[in-house]
Amino acid sequence: MNDWGQCLCDPKCAAASPPTCVATCATNATDPVHRVVAYRTTDLETWEPVGVVYTPPGTGRLFRPIVVWNARTSLFVMWYERYHAINGTTYAVSTSPSASGPFIEARPAVKLHGVGRDDGCGDATILVDDNGSAYHVRFGLVIERLTPDYLSGSGSVYQLGGPNGPNDTNRLEAPVFLKEKGWYVVLAGTLCCAASGGTSVYAFRSRNPLGPYVVQGLIADRNDTRAQASTVIATNSPGDPLIWLGNQWGTSMVPNQPRDTDLLRFALLHVTEDGIVANLTWSDNITLSIPTPS
Questions:
Q1: Are 43 and 15 in contact (CB under 8 A)?
Q2: For residues 24 and 195, what is the distance between their CA atoms, to the nearest angstrom?
Q3: Cα(139)–Cα(47) distance, rounded to whole angstroms?
């Protein structure tokens, strides 16, 4: 998780009418406490803090860390969006032999292919397929297969776009990417710029990670999610439900605190044998039977 500390509200959001995220941001864009911290759990109820696993060199902002395991290199690989004075807005990549870190920066600036956000970045996630190939999906929506070391893009790209086709590149952000029952599923939310209240979510499915994708359509509105998607977690519970995990911006139980003290939304997610994603609905509680680790 990204330990936001103090962060800058995007000027485009602050200038909106009404402002969309002023209440959730502090004022210092280069605070050195933009770090990545880790927690671990065996039951999704009790969480143990691991501590800081990555502190980027220099100053700047760090967004949306994603960690995956590369069996070929025996390394955990972390991608994140990096804002700094030298390289501008880019993705960067760090690696570690342990999920507990420390992660060391391997690529300070990575530019991917395809047409997404103007700066080539944005919220992203990574799916590692059964054969070890990794796929990066970002704001846009653009899906790209990564190189075997997971440190850069291969140039093999599928331009998903949005519900209106591949040119619909400025509608959806915060994607999550999963494979379930032989289907590749992308879920992405409407733009919210870390605003409180949540996003609507669209679903897309394919038999191939690089498409073509079928638009299922809207599976939740912002009243159903009350959050912006962060990831999807497999549970190995009876019935194979997944957990959709989202950030509930502006919900800190302590007034005037930065965004790393906001709450998280846990929701059950079901995918049918036909690749159809069941609608996400709000629930105050979810119940799971988690197998006990041996």
A1: no
A2: 7
A3: 30
Structure tokens at 171: 């509608």
The first and second tokens of residue 70, run together, are 């590369």
Tens-binned pLDDT, residue by residue, of the chain (294 aa):
544 443 334 444 444 433 333 333 333 344 545 788 899 888 878 889 998 999 888 766 788 899 999 999 999 999 999 876 666 788 999 999 999 999 999 999 999 999 888 788 889 999 999 999 999 999 989 999 999 999 999 999 999 999 899 888 888 989 999 999 999 999 999 887 666 778 899 999 999 999 999 999 999 998 899 888 989 988 777 676 899 998 887 777 666 666 667 788 889 999 999 999 999 988 888 888 877 666
Strand-strand pairing, 172-180 and 153-159: unpaired
Here the tokens at position 122 are 């944005």
Separation of alpha carbons 155 and 171, rounded Å: 23
DSSP-derived 3-state class of residue 22:
helix
Q: Which residue has the tokens 């070890």?
A: 132
DSSP 261-281: GSEEEEEEE-B-TTSPBPPP-
Measure the CA–CA gap between 69 and 76, rounded to whole angstroms: 4
With CA atoms as reference, report the closest residue to 121 among 177, 82, 171: 82
* Joined tokens for residue 66: 């994603």
CA–CA gap between residue 190 and residue 183 (Å, rounded): 23
Assign residue 171 a region (left: φ > 0; alpha: ψ between -120 and 50; beta: otherwise). alpha
Question: Residue 224: which of 201, 205, 258 has the closest Cα?
Answer: 201
The two structure tokens encoding residue 93: 């990549």
Instruction: Cis check for the bond before 141: say yes or no (omega within 30 of 0).
Output: yes
d(CA 287, CA 260): 26
Place of tokens 């075997």: 148
